[in-house]
Amino acid sequence: MTEIADATLDRDREIMTVNVGPHHPATHGVLRLVVDLEGEIVRELRPVIGYVHTGIEKSCEDKSYWKVIPFVERMDYVSYFFQMEAYCGAVERLIDLEIPPRAKYLRTLFLELNRIHSHLVWLGTTALDLGAISMLWYCFRERDKILDLFEMATGQRMHTRYFQVGGVIEDIPVGFEEKCRAFAEEMPIRVGQYEDLLDRNEVFLQRTKGTGIVSRERLLELGVTGPLLRAAGDPWDLRKAFDYLAYPEMDFKIPVGTVGDNYDRYRVRVAEMVESARIVAQCLDALPEGPHIADDRKYVLPPRSELSTSMESLIHHFKLVTEGYRVAPGEVYYSIEGPRGELGCFVLADGSAKPARVHFRDPSFVNLQSFRDMAMDGYVADMIASLGMLDPILGGVDR
Amino acid sequence: MPDAPGLELIRGEIERDCPGAVLATSFDRAQAALIVDPQRVLDALRWLSEQPGQRYSFLSSLHAADYLPAEPRFGVHYELINRDRVERIRVKAMLADPGGEELPEIDSCVDLFPTAEAQEREVFDFFGIVFRGHPNLTRILMPDDYVGWPQRRDFPVGGEPVTFTYSEQRYD
Fold first, then answer.
1. For chain B, what percentages of helix, strand and coil (3-state, to nearest 5) are there?
2. Contact across the interface for A346 and B118, Cβ inside 8 Å
3. Residue A2: its pLDDT value, please?
4. DSSP collapsed to 3 states, A20-56
5. What would the mean pLDDT of A360-378 be, rounded to a whole number?
6. pLDDT of residue A1
7. In b/e form, how buried is each residue of A97-121, taking b as 16+ CB within 10 angstroms?
8. pLDDT at A3 over 60
9. CA-CA distance, B83 to B60, in Å (whole number)?
10. What is the ipTM of this complex?
11. 20 to 30 A from A234, CA-CA: which of A3, A66, A345, B73?
12. Strand, helix or coil at A343?
């Protein structure tokens, strides 16, 4: 009997290296994990990334400033408005261009809609990983409403190219405000329904409570920002810390967690959706009148209607579309609070019409480093839960 | 952001504790930057992160840029945040290209800021800047067997032959 028991014990202690991914639905993209397992316990974990690296940063150096915008949108493909804002904001700071108040409010509005959209994609797919399959349909139902709003205002459901250097490309259409207001009113009710579905789901609670805990100090060392850091009790949010767009005029709270486990991460993001809906409603209430894009013809396309009557406008249009504008040498790092944390954009100008370097500090890329701490010495199943709650977007990680 | 006089004060204090570490300051477009001696970059970073009253202890981003044709050519940027005062400061170390097959080198700050682990690997991957003392300095986004440093300004865009069935036959 003892011999058999010993043999079983030895077999348990045996370290087995398992490959997860890169193509696996639970890895939320093309992420490969090399995991050393002792039985079901994770003893070592190495994420392998780079499978969707497409050299966007390099390609941007070959494009004039305004042509870079659709490129950077495709890095983190569920938070495209944030990528646009980080890039356009950096270029605006390089050329010292102030954007009109209406553009600030419209940008804030679309950023917050995008934040809800991004969190909905996260909630749907992560709940799916944890066995709550129906959540996906409910979340994607609301996500589709946001995409409808995007389509109504910008003509595209994803990758809208709506933000321009100097403002936004078009004013919102008639009827948008009404639809958007209805959505902002409905969203908190829907979030309440999601909570009803998940907060009493025994399986969901057991898999999230007390798993994947990383201390606040360790998260700060690892440079983790966004909901992950806030779930560990640190109210660090760039929307409050730094002054950009219309956020100083908005009334919203920063949800924080207490222990920093996967359940707190879920609670923080869900609470953020309600706060974002509040910001959307406030943007609509306080939307200032006036132009939606700056009036500096050296950087901003003239209105279409002027092209047939004004020679000046035609020349400006031609110059902007063919060569673009030149930017005096300099460098700017501009960061905003993305759905996953600090999204920074570094732009280096060398005096030509093309940027000499565009770099994105993507929160998924930096946050992924904390995954090892979350998963070490836990079960494989908890590792999958932690990965979902980490919410990496591999397009942003690999760029 | 510290303003321009604030930046000079910080520079003066670092100069007192680590003489010669800071070479210059720049205050451009409301962004404060310290240009440091690449040999002394760790002294400057450690001072900024640990000095009482400063505590720029959160490294939000580490990235590099190629300033070709300027000399020295490479710049390694450290974007630091003081979370108490909510201020940013940039530390910049300029590295010359040793030429030929040799790679420029700088000390790794992983011990000071563990978050730099992946970001230093990324800089190595794309610019060929070696971080001395990094625990695992390998390519991170490009394939392991890739040759060249793609984000350098003299590295051409595109130009990599894609092996489709027909082109394989043609090149053989």
1. 25, 25, 45
2. no
3. 47
4. ECCEEHHHCEECEEEEEEECCEEEEEEEECCCCCCCH
5. 91
6. 41
7. bebbbbbbbbbbbbbbbbbbbbbbb
8. no
9. 11
10. 0.87
11. A345
12. strand
Distance CA A381, CA A331 (A): 45
Predicted confidence (pLDDT) per residue in A135-184, tens digit: 999 999 999 999 999 999 998 898 988 999 999 998 999 999 999 999 99
The number of residues making up chain B comes to 172
| Residues sharing a CB contact under 8 Å with residue A381, sequence separation 6 or more, in sequence order | A40, A207
What CA–CA distance (Å, rounded) separates A330 from A332? 7
Does the beta-carbon distance from B153 to A330 stay under 8 Å?
A: no
Phi first, then psi, for residue A128 (nearest 5°) are -60, -45
Q: What is the pLDDT of residue A11?
A: 56
| Amino acid residing at A235 | P
Q: Which residues in chain B have Cβ-Cβ distances shorter than 8 Å to A225?
A: 60
- Tell me the C-alpha distance between A99 and A378, whole Å: 49
Which residue of chain B has the CA closest to A240? B86
Residues of A in contact with B83 (CB under 8 A): 236
Averaged pLDDT of chain B: 86
